Amino acid sequence: MGAAGGEGSAPTPFDLFLSSIATCAGVYALGFCQSKGLSTEGLKLMNPPNFQIITSK
Questions:
Q1: Residue 33's domain spans which residues?
Q2: 38 close to 31: Cβ distance less than 8 angstroms
Q3: Distance of alpha carbon 4 from alpha carbon 32, whole angstroms
Q4: List of residues 6+ apart from 2 with CB closer than 8 A
Q5: Mind listing the pLDDT tens digit for each residue in 16-30?
Q6: What are the residue ranges of helices labelled H in 1-57?
């Protein structure tokens, strides 16, 4: 177990936040396409799993 408890197998709060933003974008894009009669075939939303946090000193 880690210092905060648990085994580190669950997503972090920030990961959940990013996923929620991607889900929101997907729902919006789907609704837009449907309202305009556009095909969603081949439409992809990608949420890159890797990111780098840059902090200034």
A1: 12-39
A2: no
A3: 42
A4: 8
A5: 898 899 899 999 999
A6: 13-36
